[in-house]
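General statements about sequence and structure are easier to judge against a single worked case. For one protein, we set the task of working out the C-alpha cells from the amino acid sequence alone. The sequence in question and its C-alpha cells are set out directly beneath this paragraph.
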Amino acid sequence: MGKKAPHIVRTCLLLGFVILLSLASVVEGVPILKDQKKTPVSTVKTKVSRSVVQTLGSYNDISAAKRRTTTSISNRSRLTAISARSVIIIDAISGKTIYAKAPDSKRQPASTIKVLTGILAIDLLKNNQRVGISKKAARQPRSKIYLDTKKTYLADDLINAVLLSSANDASVALAEKISGSEASFAKLMTERARLWGARNTTCRTASGLTARGQKTTARDLAIIFRKAMNDREFARRMKRTTTRTSYGKTLRNHNKALWQVDGTLAGKTGYTNAARQTYVGKFKRGNDEIIVALLGSETMWTDLKKLVSYGFRKKQQIRIAENRTHPNIAQALLQ
C-alpha cells in the first residue's frame, strides 16, 4: 500500500489540475468542446490572444458571438404597432421584399394612384401643350387648384399640380386631354399598371377618388412607384417641396416626409373616407434605398417614420448576415 501512495497522490494532483483548468475555462467564457480534446490548452492560449477571445466571445465557438450579435440587432429592429392595414417595404434596387403586412389586400388607393396619372401625362404630353378645362374637371372636389373653364393651362403646370398638390381638377383635365374622357384614361392607367407587373390594380378615376371597382395593393403601389421613379422627369418633379406655375400660383407638395423624414427622395400621399390615409414613397440613406407603401392608415406620418426606420435597420441586419461568409470573422462582426 505504501508503494502505491505516490501513484495515488500523482493521480489526485492530475485530477485537481484538470478541474482547475475546466473552472478557468468557464470563468473566461471558453467552453471545452469534444472536437478539441486533442488540442492542449496551453497551445490554444498561445494561438488566440485574450483580446480576440473577448471580442468573439469564445475562440472555439465563433457562432456564439454571431448569435449574440444577431439577437442584439433583432431586438433593436422590432417594429412596434402601426395602424396601417396593409404595408410593404421593398429594396428599391433589387425589388426584394424587406417587410410586409397584408401586402396583397385589395383596397381603395385614394390619391396615390395619381402616380399613374402623372407618369402617363409626362410620357404622352409636351410641357408646353395647352389644356382646356371642362365643367366636369372644374367641379371636382378638393384637393384642387380651382381651374377656370374659360382658360387653358400648360400641361407642365397641371402635371405639377397633380403630383405635388394632388389636384383632382388637374387630374381630370389631363385625362380628358390625353384620352377624351376620364373613363378611357382610367383604362390606360390600368394597362400601364399591368404592364409594370401591378396585376391587382384597377383604376376607375384619374384622381383616385372612391369609385366602385377601383382597387390596388401595397405591393402594387410599391411596384408602380419603383418603376415611375426610374423616369428622371418624374423623379425631378416629385422631389420639389414647392414650385410656381407659369401664371404665378405657388404649388406646395403634400408630402411632409420631404422635410420630416431623413432620406426622403419622393412620395405621394392620399386620403378618402373609404381608403383612409395612403402613401407610397422612396427613401435613401447611405447606399441603401427602400420603397414604402401603406394603405388604410389612421396615423400615416407616425406609421411612415416607424416603417422607414425599420426598413433601414433591416437592411443593416441583412448586410451583417451576408458578411458572415467573410473569411475574416472578427472583421465581419465589427463592420
About this structure: The first helix runs from residue 5 to 27. The beta strands are 86-91, 97-101, 130-132, 152-154, 242-244, 250-252, 264-272, 276-285, 288-297.
